[in-house]
Amino acid sequence: MQLFLYIFTFWIFQPTTISSTKTDNYLSVTISGIQEDKGQIRIGLFKNAVSFPKQGKQHKGYLIDVKDKKASIKIYNIQKGTYAIGVMHDVNKNQKLDKNWVGYPIELYGFSNDARATFSAPSFESASFYHDGSTAMTIKVL
Questions:
Q1: Global pTM?
Q2: Distance (Å, rounded) from C-alpha 96 to C-alpha 31?
Q3: What is the pLDDT of residue 9?
Q4: Could you give the C-alpha distances from 116 to 24, 39, 52, 86, 110, in angstroms and in order?
Q5: What is the Cα 106 distance to its own chain's centre?
Q6: Are the C-beta atoms of residues 120 and 7 closer than 8 Å to each other?
Q7: Would you tell me how many other CB atoms lie within 10 Å of the CB of residue 87?
Q8: How far apart are CA 140 and CA 142, in angstroms?
Q9: CB 83 within 8 A of CB 45
Q10: Where are the domains of the chain?
Q11: Residue range 88-116, pLDDT digits in tens
C-alpha cells in the first residue's frame, strides 16, 4: 500500500507556463472521462522510467481548467523523443491526488496509452510513446 501512495505523489508539482510560440512541433493532449466542471487537470510529462511518475521529477508540468467536462492542451516546442504522461483531475485544487482511508485514489487519474496497473502506477514502458514532432492523444481519466 505504501508503494501505491508513494507512486502517486508526483501529482504535487510546480506547473510551467505554456509556451505561446506556435510551431509545427507540438504535443496535443485531450482528457476524456471528466465527470464534473470543478477544479483543474494536472499534467506531468516525463522523459524516463527513473522519474516516472515521481513528485518533482517530471520534465514539464501543466495545469488546465476544466470547462464543460472537457480539457485539452497543445504543448509546443517539445523535443522529439520518448515520453510518458500522467494526468489527474484535482477537483478541489489542493494540489494532490486525494485518496480514501484505504489509500485508493478518489480523484480521477490516467496515463498516456491509457496504461493501468493493479496496485501501483503503470510502468514507463507501458505508458510511453514516441513524440516525432506532432503527436495527438486522448487520455481517459478513471
A1: 0.83
A2: 18
A3: 46
A4: 31, 23, 14, 11, 8
A5: 16
A6: yes
A7: 24
A8: 6
A9: yes
A10: 2-140
A11: 999 999 988 899 999 889 999 999 999 99
pLDDT tens digits, one per residue of 47-80:
999 999 886 789 999 999 999 999 999 999 999 9
In this structure, the number of other CB atoms found within 10 A of the CB of residue 142 comes to: 9
d(CA 86, CA 114): 10
What cell does 138 get? 486522448
Residues 133-138: contacts with CB under 8 Å, at least 24 apart: 133/24, 133/25, 133/80, 134/24, 134/25, 134/26, 135/26, 135/27, 135/28, 136/27, 136/28, 136/29, 136/30, 137/27, 137/28, 137/29, 137/30, 137/85, 137/112, 138/29, 138/30, 138/31, 138/32
CATH number, domain 2-140: 2.60.40
